[in-house]
Design brief:
This protein has 21 helices and 33 strands. Helices cover 28% and strands 22% of the residues. Strand 8 and strand 9 form a beta hairpin. Helix 2 packs across helix 8, helix 10 crosses helix 12 and helix 18 packs across helix 20. The protein starts with 9 loop residues before the first helix and ends with a strand. It has an 8-stranded mixed β-sheet with strand order 13-14-19-20-16-17-18-15. Strands 2-4-5-6-7-3 form a 6-stranded mixed β-sheet, with no helix packed on it. A 5-stranded antiparallel β-sheet has the order 25-26-29-27-28. It is globular.
């Protein structure tokens, strides 16, 4: 399941689907994808105890205080709500924007709809490097069972006082984002970041049924992130595939609860939902909004959350987690009518209705009249037209000439992939160096200076040498295994020319060369890796230099040539980031996103070319072939990563070499989990003991070792009443 929904056999999806359907039915709030993940990963009991019997350490939860500044807390975060007495342990089940400019009737100023975090007014996005946004968080105060829940009387007192939670049982905070880029992250990426940072101890707890570190085979951040995003994708796919569930964005509700709502004649029932839909449809055409002779288009923005409070008797049904259910049901109702009764949002009365902002106020719907003057589009994809309408119009484009891509020289070319002397004595000289792209194209390889000096004899300016190739573990052609090549010698350097490189040699491949003193034979050999590895876009079983591989094994490069001409935007982005980004020792390359177009084309290209590159970057980020990060720029304009204190932060895009995926014996890696010839791998886990029994010293030690492998160095002992079952394989 760490590989994502498409990688999971149907039988396993069916088992997970049955459980998640039961979770959605049991919980009073809509179940977000992250909540569904929590239920599976941390163990949500359906009998009413929730997470009360789970191994979560409550002291690790971040503390939030009503009305104050808070860190980023995505849906799914488990928190402690500060109170004057007993703390409230809760799970955030819903969040939305709570902009102060949205009025009590749900009317939204145009600039607020789709505005970025930190926006200060129409057309003013703000200049704060750490933008703030007011948000409403809906905590489930009963998620941890009766033992950790306050009584109705206690909750009533807290709501009445309004100091720790508001009168509806919600928490309104000013969320401080470390950057605008972080504020724009989607829900699943934001939650993955939360689990890998703020809630890392919770994620890697040895008390969970199977820790993520066990699933991915290590604690490297890249592996943990990839596995976590894969699990979240699996959960989302299962929720979306259920016939008994309906989703709004990432929130899942049962179809039965939606049907019950439509049949309900009370507050926020079917009649009120119909009234809401009709009000949004007619918002831009009502007589109160039109004057005699008015011909200018009219646009109205309506926030669902505040608008629901207008209906008589709705107050009680908007308290606690029921608010989240009401908002999601209202949005589903609006979406169904827009899809069923309009032509891409265009209704018979001439108005066009579309979702403009999915986050602010529970969802901001845009009503525009006349709607037939606007270009059609998907009415359920938030377009942020309100905010965009307040931005200054772009200048009229001048006649632009599309540029051809250019390749700037590599800044670190001289230092990249230099050779290393392994041994030099009276008998032989041994050195190693990575194969470079230029060597493959030109059929040559540099000699170590000591060898060049030894070969530099009078009357032998270009001696012929015998080159013997040994590609360990592979069979070479006779013409490749033994070659006679020329040694081209300079004053203090030299190279072997006329080499025929084997077809599977690639840039970065490590070569070890040795020559006996006075001999005319040079032996060149590759070295085997212990296990085969994914090296960039290729798989290899031989040692390589990841820096050279990142720089030179790029789109447009082969042993027949090296050029960016003719590449599409996607390939140009990958080529430029890998060739020009800040290079790390393990082959990562990070680049300032703002300079990408100039780096590709040598100067600022045509607007259409910039747009094509931006689109390619977005797709590569979504496919996780590129990663986003934050760096900084110093006063001389030099970028740095990680960001340095006191320097202006800048968004980066990064290439991460594909790491070898650790194949655990979960299902043996065979289709339908049939691996290990009918055996099933069982991870180490806790098991409750019978009353009066104690775990053995051996199992205590095994649990400490289990904790150490998960990154918990010390201080972890078995909880009272449990023993540890070591990992093992069992037959079916």
């Amino acid at each position: 399941m760490t590989g994502g929904y498409d990688a999971v056999p149907g039988e396993e999806c069916s088992r997970l689907r049955s459980y998640l359907e039961a979770v959605v039915e049991a919980r009073p709030a809509p179940v977000h994808t992250t909540l569904a993940f929590n239920a599976v990963y941390f163990g949500y009991e359906l009998g009413g105890d929730g997470y009360g019997g789970s191994p979560l350490c409550l002291d690790d939860f971040p503390v939030i205080t009503f009305g104050e500044c808070a860190p980023v807390l995505p849906v799914g975060a488990m928190v402690c709500v500060a109170t004057g007495s007993d703390p409230l342990y809760a799970e955030i089940v819903y969040r939305e924007g709570a902009h102060p400019e949205v009025d009590v009737l749900g009317d939204v100023p145009a600039w607020v709809s789709g505005a970025p975090a930190g926006a200060e007014g129409p057309g003013r996005p703000g200049t704060d490097a750490e933008p703030r946004r007011r948000e409403l968080l809906v905590p489930d105060l009963h998620a941890f069972g009766p033992a950790l829940s306050l009584s109705p009387a206690q909750l009533h007192r807290l709501r009445t006082r309004g100091r720790w939670i508001n009168e509806d049982g919600h928490v309104v905070v000013d969320v401080c984002y470390p950057s605008l880029q972080v504020a724009r992250r989607d829900d699943l990426t934001a939650y993955a970041d939360h689990l890998l940072t703020t809630a890392r101890e919770q994620l890697l707890s040895p008390f969970v049924p199977v820790s993520l570190a066990s699933l991915v085979g290590g604690t490297h951040d890249d592996d943990l992130r990839a596995g976590l995003l894969g699990l979240l994708d699996t959960v989302r796919g299962v929720l979306n595939s259920s016939a008994v569930l309906r989703t709004w964005g990432h929130y899942a509700l049962t179809r039965a609860s939606l049907a019950d709502c439509w049949r309900d004649t009370g507050p926020l029932g079917g009649d009120d939902l119909r009234s809401l839909v009709a009000a949004v449809e007619r918002a831009a055409t009502t007589p109160a909004r039109r004057r005699h002779g008015l011909v200018a288009p009219t646009t109205v923005y309506t926030a669902v959350g505040p608008r629901l409070r207008v209906f008589p008797g709705a107050e009680e049904r908007l308290r606690g987690v029921r608010y989240a259910a009401a908002v999601c049901r209202a949005n589903v109702a609006l979406a169904d009518v827009v899809q069923g009764d309009s032509e891409q949002g265009l209704f018979g009365n001439g108005s066009r209705v579309s979702l403009d902002d999915a986050f602010e106020g529970g969802g901001v719907w845009r009503s525009h009249h006349p709607g037939d003057a606007e270009a059609p589009g998907d009415p359920l994809v938030p377009a942020g037209r309100g905010w965009n309408s307040t931005l200054p119009a772009p200048p009229e484009p001048e006649t632009e000439v599309e540029l051809e891509p250019v390749d700037a020289p590599l800044a670190d070319d001289d230092a990249l992939g230099t050779g290393e002397l392994l041994r030099s004595d009276a008998q032989e000289i041994v050195w190693r160096a990575p194969l470079r792209l230029a060597h493959l194209i030109g059929g040559w390889f540099p000699l170590h200076p000591f060898v060049a000096q030894d070969l530099h004899l009078p009357r032998r300016a270009h001696p012929t040498l015998r080159l013997e190739l040994d590609h360990v573990g592979e069979t070479l052609d006779e013409k490749e295994a033994v070659q006679y090549v020329a040694a081209e010698l300079g004053y203090d350097s030299g190279r072997l020319a006329g080499i025929v490189w084997p077809d599977d040699f690639f840039p970065g491949l490590m070569l070890e060369l040795r020559r006996l003193r006075g001999d005319t034979v040079i032996r060149l050999a590759t070295r085997r890796l212990k296990d085969r590895a994914q090296a960039g876009d290729r798989e290899t079983g031989h040692c390589y230099d990841p820096r050279v591989l990142t720089r030179e094994d790029v789109p447009g490069s082969s042993r027949h040539g090296d050029s960016a001409v003719g590449l599409g935007p996607r390939q140009l982005v990958m080529r430029t980031v890998r060739r020009c980004g800040l290079l790390t020792l393990d082959g990562h390359a990070l680049m300032d996103r703002s300079v990408l177009p100039s780096a590709v084309y040598g100067r600022r290209p045509a607007w259409s070319q910039v747009a094509a590159l931006d689109s390619a970057v977005a797709k590569l980020l979504a496919e996780r072939l590129l990663e986003s990060a934050l760096g900084s720029r110093d006063t001389w304009g030099q970028p740095h990563f990680p960001p340095r204190d006191g320097q202006r932060t800048i968004p980066l895009i990064g290439y991460r070499p594909a790491r070898p995926r650790v194949i655990s014996p979960w299902g043996g890696g065979e289709p339908r989990g049939e691996g290990l010839r009918g055996a099933q791998f069982v991870a180490g886990h806790l098991r409750r003991l019978r009353p009066g029994c104690l775990p053995s010293d051996v199992q205590r030690a095994a649990f400490r070792e289990h904790c150490r492998r998960l990154g918990k160095a010390d201080g972890w002992e078995l909880p009272y009443g449990y023993t540890f079952v070591t990992e093992h394989a069992r037959g079916r």
